[in-house]
Design brief:
The chain is of the alpha+beta class and about 500 residues long. The protein contains 24 helices and 6 strands. The chain folds into 2 domains: about 5-215, Heat Shock Protein 90; about 230-495, Hypothetical protein af1432 (Orthogonal Bundle). Helix 18 packs antiparallel against helix 19 (about 385-395). It is elongated.
């Protein structure tokens, strides 16, 4: 059964404040795509779009739990067990492995009477989203769930939960705690994250009131992390001077070349980056003069910035250099997208913003490695968006915001810091910086899609519309062009060695 919407026109239902729901049996790609479209429109109407990523993380946890609860009932039926009398016995056999999308149990779910609904309702000043499934919750389950929610209300940081002994026999322990904490830490009333039984169904409800303290909450950065930003190594002086020279309208290529050649380390770094797989050139560049002519002053400025960061990473964060290297493909994609889609004027800045997009993660790992590794274990099978949100709750700041704070500390341009901060949240970017941000976001999406973290169905609709990529075939065509261009670039670089 395909996902169905109870309202003939859900956009009109939202506008008029009418209750409606999305119904499905398994949360497949079709159901997820419908859910994301409705949620976006619902939050836009409520002026809560900035909370979209947070709420996606929470709701997907609740949705997956609802599907799992239904699957559990079907499993007990197939095992000829009474879920009330034989709960403990049945749960010793029940495992998340039976919930594989291609497994027998999930296939059987599609022709069963078990359903999940997501209700959307505007009630007085609250915007309510409820996850409903048509199986009554048993006492053992309600006790377990309420215990987890209560735990979450007392933790100030998810890291505090790691040391607790949790009943994770069903794989839901930390997930529900995280969902509850994310809701609270996003500025919503924790008491409005509730579960209850009604007739023969179970309902999780979230009541969303417009936040008045969002800025304050977003500004709460753990002191340790704040100190790390304050103490981030200063940007190398010669790289800084070169950047300033490139901004001077009276400077010439000869001025640039003469300055760079006086610093052997800077010269080597610029030539290395100019010939890297991440930059756009198929010709080996062997001199600073040649680099300046081929790349231009804007290109030299971007490489000077990248060179300064490269020096800092090498000297202070060498253990995490691999993250810096991983960003080269994203930078390449961002540059090519800008050129391909006739936004050439922002190509250099898009390249740099994409290249710097992981600098926040590098700093976080350097001061919170153990916590970050634990989170990686817990979030292994979650989407990139979910991982980002959970990291923000656990560590006190998102890696994107941290990256933005770092480049501000280095006195980079505001539009660059904004592109870094919102490269995963394009709906939050300012209108004037939309082209740059959308370009970096799309490069990020393509890179994440290659490792299974993104699908076309969940890409931001505004970004797809902006680039005329609303058709999945056009989206794939552009991705294929980027892959071919990058592979060709890699071959060219290899042949030049």
């Amino acid at each position: 059964m395909k996902a169905l919407i109870s309202a003939e026109d859900y956009t009109l239902a939202i506008t008029e404040g009418k209750l409606f729901y999305l119904e499905f049996q398994v949360f497949d790609a079709d159901a997820e795509a419908c859910f994301l479209r409705i949620l976006r429109r619902f939050l836009s109407h409520a002026d809560l779009l900035y909370s979209r990523d947070v709420l996606i993380t929470i709701l997907k946890e609740l949705i997956n739990n609802a599907v799992k609860a239904n699957a559990k009932r079907l499993f007990f039926q197939r095992m000829n067990l009474d879920i009330r009398k034989d709960y403990s016995e049945g749960m010793t056999s029940f495992s998340s492995s039976v919930l594989r999308p291609d497994g027998d149990l999930m296939i059987a779910m599609q022709s069963s009477d078990y359903k999940v609904r997501i209700y959307f309702e505007n009630r007085n000043s609250d915007y309510i989203i409820s996850v409903w499934n048509n199986t009554p919750i048993v006492p053992e389950e309600i006790e377990r769930i309420n215990s987890r929610i209560e735990k979450a209300r007392h933790y100030s940081n998810i890291s505090e939960a790691f040391g607790d002994t949790l009943d994770d026999s069903e794989g839901a322990g930390l997930g529900l705690i995280m969902a509850s904490m994310v809701f609270r830490n996003a500025g919503f009333d924790a008491s409005k994250f509730v579960v209850h039984r009604k007739d023969n169904s179970t309902i999780f409800s979230l009541a969303l009131s417009r936040r008045t303290d969002s800025a304050e909450i977003r500004g709460k950065i753990a002191q340790e992390i704040n100190n790390a930003v304050e103490n981030i190594p200063a940007f190398p002086e010669n790289s800084r001077l070169l950047i300033d020279m490139c901004k001077n309208p009276d400077v010439t290529i000869k001025h640039i070349s003469d300055f760079v050649k006086r610093d052997p380390g800077l010269s080597a770094s610029i030539l290395k980056l100019a010939n890297s797989a991440g930059y756009i050139t198929s010709k080996k560049i062997s001199s600073i003069e040649e680099a300046s002519v081929l790349i231009g002053l804007n290109g030299i400025q971007s490489i000077a910035m990248a060179s300064g960061v490269d020096e800092i990473v090498n000297n202070h964060f060498k253990e995490f250099k691999y993250l810096w290297m991983e960003s080269y493909k994203k930078a390449f994609y961002a540059y090519k997208i800008a050129i391909q889609l006739k936004n050439a004027k922002i190509a250099e800045k898009a390249y740099l913003a994409a290249l710097l997009s992981k600098i926040g993660r590098i700093l976080l790992l350097s001061i919170k490695k153990e916590t970050a590794q634990k989170l990686a274990e817990i979030t292994r099978n979650k989407s990139q968006t979910e991982v980002d949100i959970l990291e923000e709750i656990a560590l006190g700041v998102s890696i994107s915001t941290l990256g933005s704070l770092i480049v501000k500390r280095w006195h980079f341009d505001d539009d660059l810091s904004e592109a870094i901060e919102y490269h995963r949240k394009p709906h939050m970017v300012s209108e004037k910086n939309k082209s740059l941000n959308y370009t970096v976001y799309l490069a990020h999406v393509f890179c994440e899609a290659e490792i299974g973290k993104y699908r076309f169905e969940i890409v931001d609709e505004d970004v797809l519309s902006y680039f005329n990529l609303a058709d999945a075939n056009n989206f794939k065509k552009l991705h294929d062009i980027l892959i071919d261009a990058y592979n060709t670039q890699m071959k060219n670089i290899e042949n030049l060695k």
